[in-house]
Design brief:
The protein is of the alpha/beta class. An eleven-stranded mixed beta sheet has the order 1-3-2-6-8-7-14-15-11-9-10. Strands 4-5 form a two-stranded antiparallel ribbon.
Length: about 475
Amino acid sequence: MNQTTQQPYTGDEICRKQAFQVVDMLRRGEVSPAELIDAAFARIGAVEAAVNAMPITCRSRAEAAAIRLDDTMRDHPGWLAGLPLGIKDLTAVAGVRCTSGSLGLADFVPEASDPLVTMIEARGGIVVGKTNTPEFGAGGNTFNEVFGRTRNAYDTRLNAAGSSGGAAVSLATGEVWLSHGSDHGGSLRTPAAYNGIVGLRPSPGLCGSLSNTAFLIEGQEGPMARSVRDCALFLDAMAGFQPAVPTSFPPPAKSYQQSVIEADNKIRIGFAPDLGGYAPVEPVIMDALHGAMLLVERNGGVVEEACPDLSELEPTYHVLRGLKMAAAFKRAPQEVTRHLKPTIVGNIAFGRALSVDQIADAQLNRTVIFNNMHEYLQRYDVLACATVGCMPRPVEVEWVDEINGLKLSGYMDWLKFAFLATTAGLPAISIPVGFSEEGLPIGIQLIGPPRGEAKLLAVAAMVEAVVGGPNGPIDPNIRH
């Protein structure tokens, strides 16, 4: 969409181009990886003090990677050809600090990269830094005791969301062309909505990564970008079978980029902006969602207001999250756990107190929810709803406790729109569809069928086109 309240970055032209365009330039030899590294670090130097999106950088490592770039995978659809990118500071990059936002790991430097990072680098991605995250990725506001707060690119007084807040802001401000993130409670989606970029939570196992809870599918890695096509490019680079990841599987034969290129306006969207009254949505967001769907209809798409039965979604999600937290920290050393923030301690305690009946009910209920969504997605290509129900709050506010006059009691309550895709194991994407009067971006969430990333991306591309996207990078709007 054309952003009217901010001017795009007016420095080096290369930083304003989409990733797929820059990769094409790399393939043709019109620009070198070394030149892009210079451009990325110039941009990082220009904006980091304002936003704190990428507190860990690794320029020497990136320059060495550019020199030894191996093009044996040049014909792979996800070939990145030496494009600089960011990795979230929860995922290991060999020889680079990996703090997970925790004082207990503040000086940890892994010797080996996560297999996902190894795959991305083998496909021509060059890591220039690690993006900021809340402690162990827990929470919808990106802050921690190691690096402090990441600030919203459009108004530095406000929350950038989380937990992939650093990744989203690094894209919105033009530090990198692609950035990796992860998602359990909306961590790829909410920051995308708050910073005017695209975030895709893939189907479980498509972008495999190491985890000590590898058989639990709720937490997933995924791509973030400034456009749907760039997101598809990065998904092509991230997707693939990983023998070390038990849930992983290979992507389809046709690239995700090709699905975006071939996208047309013959789409059917089931529209449930507040999921049938499941959670409150502020009027400015509701208006933007309705406006986007009206544009879809005017451009040949079909939109019908319909909501599947999502009974028991909220308690089911919380049980699954609690089980994950209890398992993830069960064997963590005391020198790490003694630093944990209170919300994580509470999550662990909740998980450890779960009964067998609660866990069994959660598994049964999530199956019902999946079945209901499967039936729904026989009629529609995607379900469209809010990504998040409220606009960003001040950066100092850890979690939102009120929306539209409704008091919220738990620190995850304001993120309820993230629970459905996570619980049902479905791919979901957030794309920008408008701006508030104050110039803050607003996103819509599209949820697709099982392993239906190709269809999901195609629909997202059509929606992006009709609302006038994508957004370009901006200079941080520094307000005090």
